[in-house]
């Protein structure tokens, strides 16, 4: 497969990859990973395990995702890679004029304005219907049990829960937000480390989703509760918005990088940023990872990719250029020629002339799933539908209120979306799922993980443990505190404005599962910057 050192990591974290033969689940929360593995052991396939893990994560990691969020999936099964876009559109009744009439010049982060139709429950149901081997009722049972009986809160979870509570207590003071506090802080505070947390309402909602194969959320009892609460509190989300939603099966997009095909979901997702950058980077030769020139070119390529995506990416049908134009070899060559030995101010080109959870699963039959799910910016909008446990996402925050922008707010339209699952193949052979969650860090993490694997021969855990960087804007770049100091100095000398970030989760949280095509052995790595784990057998 890869020319990698399976036994050691050159980085201080020093964890080893996990090896198994029959099945594997990698995600950011041990209880959710174990739930997915239990489903595999009961005879479920990788798709069933992914759904079970995703549903569990809405319970055991509510600071990052929920039933009221979106989801995307890449599924390898029966010799083919399938893509599922589970992102919902803006309500039909919202518009730029309506938002500006309420006094906003940019999209707010909280309240009803940024709420879009949640796609996660529909995504679970659609995956189960098309590829699952167990019923959705059986697959959601572990999540229902955790929500009903409770689980002890982990260290990382408690930290971000308390951070959200502290922020919300100061900012979310109007009546529409009170149900967030009664749902997620019923004791007048966030739960503490080791405290057992349960949510009976969450359990009831999951049961209804399981019993109706997701229909209740869009065309039944739960949909009515969401629509009624929206109407009572000045929201834009109506019953017909929910009724009209179905996830969309899409053809994944890819670029070939040094003999490997790197796959992403097409826009409205930002996976194309990683592909744009890799398409540029493949024209260079990298002899070593820890060199100033390697990091410099990575950063410059990401800047070029983001410049194009932030100007052009929105719902695919409304983009000014096609993905084929953006990912063409001629355009990559044109963009590559802009990279010098000094940091540039990024600008979009003209192709016509040339907080989230991630999980990966695999089973012994060869099925593999790359799955990502998010409420966005932690708990999302701050809007919780009473008696449901549903925290609604604020994905609409990414819309532009500039009527000339490609990603302008339009009722019924899907916005530029940050969450992206990744998948790697070689020829027609699946290597496996990978992902790095975390807002606009995600495509940057994809590029770093793929290069660590393909260019520098690292096994999955080492590829994830390696110190990361993150481009912010213009020439501003953050690096981890473990990042090599002499390289940070060298990048600064090339014109990058380097700052050291002490918070590890600023650099994303990743998971990888590779399958050795010769032996069938699964090799997994999980994020060392959080409570990540690989459950395997």
Written overview of the protein:
The chain has 537 residues and is an alpha+beta fold. It has a domain at 21-249 and 357-398. It has helices at 30-41, 46-60, 96-101, 120-131, 136-139, 141-149, 155-171, 178-184, 200-212, 215-219, 221-232, 239-243, 271-281, 292-312, 323-326, 329-336, 442-454, 460-465, 485-493; strands spanning 18-20, 23-27, 70-77, 80-86, 151-152, 196-197, 248-250, 253-257, 260-264, 357-363, 368-374, 384-385, 390-391, 422-426, 429-437, 469-473, 476-480, 497-501, 509-515, 522-526, 533-536. The protein has a seven-stranded antiparallel beta sheet. Helix 6 runs antiparallel to helix 9 (200-212), helix 13 (271-281) packs across helix 14 and helix 14 crosses helix 19. The radius of gyration is 22 Å and the shape is globular.
What attributes characterize this protein structure?
537 residues, alpha+beta, seven-stranded antiparallel sheet, 19 helices
């Amino acid at each position: 497969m890869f020319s990698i050192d399976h036994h050691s990591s050159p980085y201080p974290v020093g964890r080893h990859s996990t090896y198994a033969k029959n099945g594997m689940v990698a995600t950011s929360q041990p209880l959710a990973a174990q739930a997915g593995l239990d489903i595999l052991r009961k005879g479920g396939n990788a798709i069933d395990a992914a759904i079970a893990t995703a549903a569990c994560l809405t319970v055991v990691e509510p600071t990052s995702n929920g039933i009221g969020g979106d989801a995307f999936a890449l599924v390898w099964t029966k010799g083919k890679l399938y893509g599922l876009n589970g992102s919902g559109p803006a309500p039909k009744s919202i518009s730029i004029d309506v938002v500006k009439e309420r006094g906003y010049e940019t999209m707010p982060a909280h309240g009803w304005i940024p709420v879009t139709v949640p796609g996660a429950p529909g995504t679970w149901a659609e995956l189960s219907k098309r590829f699952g081997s167990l019923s959705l009722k059986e697959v959601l049972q572990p999540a229902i049990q955790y929500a009903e009986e409770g689980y002890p809160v982990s260290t990382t979870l408690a930290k971000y829960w308390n951070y959200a509570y502290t922020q919300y207590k100061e900012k979310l003071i109007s009546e529409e937000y009170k149900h967030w506090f009664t749902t997620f802080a019923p004791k007048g505070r966030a739960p503490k480390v080791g405290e057992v947390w349960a949510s009976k309402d969450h359990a009831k909602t999951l049961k209804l989703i399981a019993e109706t194969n997701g229909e209740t959320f869009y065309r039944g009892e739960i949909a009515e509760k969401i629509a009624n609460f929206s109407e009572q509190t000045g929201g834009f989300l109506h019953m017909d918005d929910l009724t009209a939603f179905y996830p969309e099966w899409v053809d994944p997009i890819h670029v070939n990088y040094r003999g490997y095909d790197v796959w992403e979901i097409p826009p409205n997702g930002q996976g194309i940023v990683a592909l744009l950058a890799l398409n540029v980077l493949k024209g260079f030769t990298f002899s070593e990872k820890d060199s100033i020139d390697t990091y410099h070119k990575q950063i410059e390529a990401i800047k070029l990719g983001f410049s194009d995506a932030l100007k052009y990416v929105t719902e695919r049908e409304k983009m000014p250029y096609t993905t084929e134009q953006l990912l063409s070899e001629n355009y990559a060559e044109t963009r590559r020629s802009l990279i010098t030995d000094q940091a540039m101010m990024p600008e979009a080109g003209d192709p016509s002339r040339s907080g989230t959870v991630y999980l990966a699963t695999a089973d012994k039959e060869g099925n593999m799933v790359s799955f990502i799910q998010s409420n966005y910016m932690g708990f999302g909008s701050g809007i919780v539908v009473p008696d449901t446990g549903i925290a609604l996402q604020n994905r609409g925050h990414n819309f532009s209120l500039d009527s000339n922008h490609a990603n302008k707010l339009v009722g019924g339209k899907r916005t530029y979306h940050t969450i992206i699952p990744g998948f790697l193949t070689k020829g027609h052979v699946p290597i496996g799922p990978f992902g790095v969650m975390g807002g606009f860090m995600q495509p940057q993490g994809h590029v770093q993980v793929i290069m660590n694997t393909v260019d520098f021969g690292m096994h999955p855990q080492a590829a994830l443990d390696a110190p990361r960087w993150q481009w912010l804007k213009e020439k501003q770049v953050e690096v981890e505190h473990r990042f090599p100091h002499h390289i940070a100095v060298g990048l600064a000398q090339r014109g990058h404005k380097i700052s050291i970030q002490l918070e590890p989760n600023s650099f994303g949280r990743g998971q990888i599962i590779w399958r050795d095509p010769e032996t069938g052995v699964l090799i997994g790595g999980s994020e060392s910057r959080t409570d990540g784990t690989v459950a395997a057998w």
